[in-house]
Amino acid sequence: MLLTRKTDYALVALAGLAQQGTRSCSARDLAEQLHLPLPVLRNILKLLTAGGMLISTRGPSGGYRLAKTPSQITLAQVFEVIEGPVQLALCCPVGADEDEPKCHLEPSCQIKGSIRRVHESLLRFLDQVTLAQIAWGDRPSEPTATATGRVSHLEQVEVVTP
Questions:
Q1: What is the DSSP letter of 70?
Q2: pTM of the full structure
Q3: What does the alpha-carbon distance between residue 47 and residue 111 come to, in Å, rounded to a whole number?
């Protein structure tokens, strides 16, 4: 499974905004800082805003900022907002039509059960990995903005590995 460029850029943008703390950042400034193409980034920021991950403010001091703390945003949520529901294979259930076969091999498939278990494990894993873990990697803590707007290290982040 390979991340699409769109999801990759979304994660880079979210990590960049996480580094900003509570300050807003314009799409243009973010694109320059992160070396992302502005037109693509604007579309991604719109999706992330519509998905409830970002807050968009208009005006000269406006821009984008995270709507939640980085530890409250999971990879599963980002994937769903950018790509739609994660589905490892056609036989893996997604949404309301779980019982309806989507693959012509499904009735006689020998690996359907195993693939579905892998799919469920993948979903659980993606739901455990947070933006904080992506943004700060091996570092022991997530910076959080104080009332003065300065960044301090307060929240411990545990890195989850499969």
A1: G
A2: 0.78
A3: 35
